[in-house]
Amino acid sequence: MKTLSSILLVLFFTIHCAFCQDIVQNETSDFTIAFGSCNKQDNPQPFWAEILKKNQPNVFIWGGDNIYGDSDDMAKIENDYKIQNNNTDYQKLKNTVLILATWDDHDYGKSDAGVEWKMKRESQQLFYDFLGVPKDDPIFKNKFTWIFISIGRFYI
User: Which of 65, 69, 71, 113 could lock 76 by a disulfide, CB 3.0 to 4.6 Å apart?
Assistant: First the structure.
């Protein structure tokens, strides 16, 4: 009986505390994440302006295939990244929103490429350049690409 009373007492206080808490809702507390992938840098990209205007994200996450480089010619891949970075509306997004990016097969330079891709290291450097990673960043010493976060001109 003593155990049952203790359980009921704890249950009562738990329920009482749960219902007595003031819940403050802040309408400006939304955190918006926008996602994008499979981006063809040569195609029109009207969605950047819409993403900024309608969604007003705090973060944009590239899910991979940020460009379609698909070449072992690193000059071509570099140019493809430049085409994307020169998109005026994408520049506005980059200067406004935290950008996270996945480095995927078409970003490597070959569809369905993996660790065996012969141009992986060179391609990785172009990916970092695309995201604006400073050349003295320790990530350049890393053999693998784990995560990169870009906040305007500040890097974490």
Answer: 71
pLDDT digits (tens, 9 = 90+) for 53-67: 998 999 999 988 899
Could you tell me the CA-to-CA distances from 1 to 5, 6, 7, 15 in Å, in that order?
A: 6, 9, 10, 21
Q: What is the torsion angle, in degrees rounded to the nearest 10, for the CA atoms of residue 85, residue 89, residue 93 and residue 96?
A: 110
**The pair of three-digit structure tokens given for residue 61, joined into one six-digit string:** 């996450």
- What is the reported pTM? 0.71
pLDDT of 1 over the 60 cut? no
Record the tokens describing residue 87, joined without a space.
């998109």
Angle, alpha carbons 125-131-134 (nearest 5°):
70
Virtual CA dihedral for 45, 59, 143, 124, nearest 10 degrees?
Answer: 10
**What value does the mean pLDDT take over residues 123-141?**
83
CA pseudo-torsion sign 109, 115, 121, 127 = positive
Rounded Cα distance between 113 and 70, Å, is: 10
Tell me which of 154 and 84 has the higher pLDDT.
84
Q: Using CA atoms, how far apart are residues 97 and 56, in angstroms rounded to an integer?
A: 9
